[in-house]
Every structure is written in C-alpha cells, then in structure tokens.
Amino acid sequence: MSEHGDKGHIVPYATLVIVWAALLTLTILTVAVSRIDLGILNIWAALGIACSKSVLVISFFMHMKYENRLFKLFLMIALITLATFIGFTFFDVMYR
Amino acid sequence: MNQTTSSPLQRGFWEATGGRRGIGAWIFSTDHKRIGLLYFYSTLLFFCVGALLGLALRLELFSPGADFFTPQQYNALFTLHGVVMIFLFIIPGIPAAFGNLVMPIQIGAEDVAFPRLNLLSWWLYAIGAILALTSLFTAGGAPDTGWTFYVPFSVRTTTNVSLATVAVFIIGFSGILTGLNFLVTIHRMRAPGMTWWRIPLFTWSLYATAWVQVLATPVLGITVLLIFAERIVGSGLFDPTRGGDPIMYQHLFWIYSHPAVYIMILPGMGVITDIIPVFARKPVFGYKAIAISSLAIAGAGSVVWAHHMTTSGMSDTAVLVFSLLTFLVAIPSAVKVFNWVATLYKGSISLDPPLLFALSFIFLFSIGGLTGLVLGAAATDVHVHDTYFVVGHFHFVMFGGTGFAYIAAMHYWLPKIYGRMYNRKAAVWGWALMTFGFIVLYMSMMIVGMEGMPRRYYDYLPKFTFWNQLSTIGSWILACGLIVIFVNIFRGLFRGKPAGDNPWGGASLEWQTSSPPPLENFDYEPEVTHGPYDFKRGCP
C-alpha cells in the first residue's frame, strides 16, 4: 500500500499520450484485422489485440505498473482465471 | 471468564446495541456477530420455505396423475424450491452466517476488515431476496424455468423471469462483497502469532471459498444480465437464427454455477474439519494437506463446469476434456475424507450432537461424491442425465453435505454465541430421524432415476410408484427430524442451562473468549502460541 497516498506515483504526460496513441493504433488494427479472412485466427487476433490494450490501460492508466507485488499477484490470478474460463470454452467452440 | 448471574443474552455483544433499539440494533449494526445472526436467521427462514416447497413437490409425486397442483404450478414450485434453496440458503448459509459469526474470532480479529461493506452485503442479500419473492406475484407470475434459467425457454416464457434474474444479480453482488471482505480480513487482520499454518481449517475453507466467490460470481451477474437483455431488447445472443449460440448460455451459466457448488460445500467441509478433532480429542490428521486441498478443490472445481453439458450438443473434445478434469476434483475431496477418518482413528471419541452430524456428513457426502463420478464419466452420464439419479446425487452432496454441516455448525457454535446449551439427548433423536429420513428420501430418488424416471416431470409411469411413495414417506420422516432439531436447539438457546465458555473443550481462539463473546470479541488482544488443534496447550 506504500505506493499510494504520500508516495503516489505521477505518470508523465508524455507517457500518457504515447499510451493513448498506442491504444488508438490498436483500435484501428482491430478493425483492419476483422476485414481480413484469417479463419479461426481472426478470434485470436481480436483477443490478442484486446489483451494488449488491457495491459496498457491497467499498467499505465490504472497505475498497476507502479503498485506492489501483492496487488500484481491478485490481478494476475483474476486475469488468469478469466483467460482460463474463455480458453476452456474453446474446447467446445473450436471442435464442434 | 466471569460468569455473572445475568442472562447470557444480556451480556457480551448482546448488550452492545450501539444506542439503537429493537430491530434497528440489528439491521444497522456493523458488528460481525450481529450480521452473522442476521444471515443465520435469514438463511434459516429460506431453508424452511424451501423445505416446505420440497415437501409439496414430494406430496404431488406421492401417486401418479394430478393430485394437488396443476403442471404449471408444479413447474413454478420446483423452480422456486431451487432458487430459494440455492441462492438464498445454501450459497450464503455457512460462509455468510457462520463465517461472519466465527471467522473473525478464530483469527483473533475484532471484526472483519470492512464492517460497513459487510452490512451492505446483508442488505443486498435482503433486497435480492425481496425481489425474488416479488417476482412470484407480479407480471406473469412465478418463474417456471428451473433454477438454471436455460435459454431458449427462459427468454420465451411469459412468467416473471426478468425480475427473478435481477434478484439473482443483486444477490450475487452480496456474495462478491462478502468474499472480498473475508479475503482481506484473513490476510490483514490476524492476531499476533496467528501464522498461516495456525489458522483453523474452517477459516482456511472460507479463504478458498472467498476466492471462488470473487472470481466466479461476476460471471453469474453477466449471464443473468444477458437473459435480461434477451428478454427486454431481443439481442439474439443465444438465438442461432440470428447468429447466436444457445450452448454458450449453458457455458456461461455453469462457469459460475459449478464453482458455486464449491462455494456451497467448501465451508461445510471446513465445519466438519473443525468439529472432528475436538470430539476425537486428537489433532487433525494432515493439517496442511486439508488446507491445501481446500485451495485445490477451489481451483480444480472452477474448470469442470461443462460436465453439466455432456448431452447438450457441445463438441466431443469438450466432453472428453471436462470429463477428465472432473475426475481430478475427486483427489483433493478424497484427501479430506481420508484425513477426517484418520483423525477419528484411535481418538477418544465423544459422540456429542455436532460429531454425529459430522459423521452423517462424511457418510452422505461420500455417497454424493461417488455418484458424482458416475455423472462425471461421460459414458454413464449419457444414460442418467436429467433423471432422478441426478436429483438424488446433488441432494446427497448439497443437503447431505452442506445441509448437515449447517446443522452441525448450529449445534457446535450457537452455544458459544448464545451462552446456553440445548438438550443433547433430543438433539441425538433429531439427528437419527433426520439421517434416516434423508436416506429413505434421496436413495429412493437415485434408484428410480436409475430405472429411468426423468426429473422435472409432473407425472410418472405407474411402475415408478413404489419408489416415489417411499421417497415421499422419507420426506415426512426428515421433516419430523428437522422439527425436533429446531425446537430443541432454540428452546435450549433461549432457556437452556449456561453453556460455559468452552463446552466442547476446543483449542481454537473462539473457545478462549467468553460465551457470548464481547463486542470486539476479546477483552485483550490474543497472542497465538500454538495450533488450533493442539489440545494439550490450547485447552486448559
């Protein structure tokens, strides 16, 4: 918790703008990829781009990059659980 | 601790009303014990409602043909029985009621980490319960979908599914907040010396449960919101003619609702694990193995959901994978059962009521667990899917497991909270009636299911009559047992003899404070120097 309150980390504007630009670029990429027929890879491409965007938002806008390990661990548990839920559903969707 | 001449209900936290009178001292209190009792009485009320609905169902099935209800009423009855029992009784029953009552004391804390959030959890539960009951009498009347709300029927039915799903959504938030509160409490609020390997195993089970509540319950919220969206705006998410996928609904529903089975059973296992060593006068066998098995059950149990969908039309690969994964859950479950039996081995056993209920739990849960493997194996599941065998199986696990653990917890911990003791002989009679009635009721269901009787049917072929009648007679015996148990325990808690601070000779922290406990649980900050089952050092 020490990273909060009196030792709060301030992200420079330049970093925020770069992250914002990266998010916009990835959004354009999402639309572009959806117009190319890659078969089943379309889903993985969309999920991959969405994950990258999430990492950027969580790391910089939500300051997780500057938090302590316990918070990062808890977040990873939640994200891995979500990925497992989605991933295991593909045992059905991909093989029907 | 000093025993004064005043009534136990005028001492300890009972007298600390926070300046409020009457019901206000309860519904606005942030004391974890008062919130625990609010949950206890709420869940007990809904258990009684659910039990009456179950008795009504069995009465209708006593003989073939129409007896007391119309088919539509029958559909509404079993839906209501399922929704009330699962969302309003079993899921919050042990973790929210006994978790709140006991867990902070077990780890030497004054309260939970977020007392106001704790109260909000109960309020959300109460609001959700009121909405669920309101759904019965408004719009199209009582939902008739079964507690699973499967599409496409739940989208098309004219009954009031919309309000019922909103109620489930709100109740889900209550569970998430309780889980979050318990996680933070167990991490941050332990007394000095209360290391991770000195935490009582009931609290360990709540810790594992809390993770499942926090991680899996949001999926339920999303799922019921999607039904709501389908019904209100017709989004077509589950409609194949519009590019949707009805099986995806089943995935979403069971991604929550199978882990929910572990939200229901893990705290029950924790209760049993705390009771057995006390009445065997022996340290628990394999403490670390039991603690880790709780986490393993929570983890493995979260990735087996599609075994409910073997006949749904999902891919054969998924059937194979989820069937295999299901078998993995049996391993940590068996670790617990073997460790309970090993704890009893060569113990100095005292057959008091809490242990009797715990022994019934082991017996009934083992039958429920092993019949679960019949359902987990895809080849056999195809034959018994949607038959009464499934109904018998999950009642063995949920009622024989969690239900018995809930009643064991009542007999074990309520004398601590109330400071008075019930009549032990009457409790033994209640236990005997309940266990016998239970076996007659649900074993008959499993047999008639193996013979091919489908579940959720209003009527049945005459060849199933004998087992159905036996099952209904079992429900009456079980109901008699429950009446004996409840009358005896509440008579004892309000009029019984003083229980003393440590009536069972327990070594964990809740037995080291007064009965009833004071407002902030201890008159001094406890310092823990031994494990929760070290009877030589922990029990003077």
Automatic annotation (TrEMBL), chain A:
Cellular component terms (Gene Ontology): plasma membrane
Specify the protein's topology with respect to the membrane: Multi-pass membrane protein
Q: Tell me the protein's name.
A: Cytochrome-c oxidase
Q: What is the lineage of its organism?
A: Bacteria, Pseudomonadati, Thermodesulfobacteriota, Desulfuromonadia, Desulfuromonadales
The subcellular location is: Cell membrane
Q: Which residues form a coiled coil?
A: none
Main location (coarse class): membrane
Q: Which UniProt keywords apply?
A: Cell membrane, Membrane, Transmembrane, Transmembrane helix
Q: What residue intervals traverse the membrane? A: 12-33, 39-61, 73-91
Write down the NCBIfam families for this protein, in alphabetical order: caa3_sub_IV
Q: State the organism of origin.
A: Geothermobacter hydrogeniphilus
From TrEMBL, chain B:
Give the residue spans that cross the bilayer. 37-57, 77-102, 122-142, 162-184, 204-229, 249-272, 284-306, 318-342, 354-378, 390-414, 426-450, 470-490
Q: Which Pfam families match?
A: COX1 (PF00115)
GO CC, any one term: membrane
Q: Where is this region: Disordered?
A: 512-540
Q: Indicate where this protein resides in the cell.
A: Membrane
PROSITE patterns with a match to the protein in the record: COX1, COX1_CUB
Query: Out of the domains of life, which is the source?
Result: Bacteria
Query: Is Electron transport one of the keywords?
Result: yes
User: A GO molecular-function term, please?
Assistant: cytochrome-c oxidase activity
GO BP annotations listed: aerobic respiration; electron transport coupled proton transport; respiratory electron transport chain
Q: How does it sit in the membrane?
A: Multi-pass membrane protein
In which broad location class does this protein mainly occur, judging by the first location in its UniProt entry? Answer: membrane
Its family remark reads: Belongs to the heme-copper respiratory oxidase family.
What is this protein called in UniProt?
A: Cytochrome c oxidase subunit I
Q: Which organism is it from?
A: Geothermobacter hydrogeniphilus
Its taxonomic path starts at: Bacteria, Pseudomonadati, Thermodesulfobacteriota, Desulfuromonadia, Desulfuromonadales
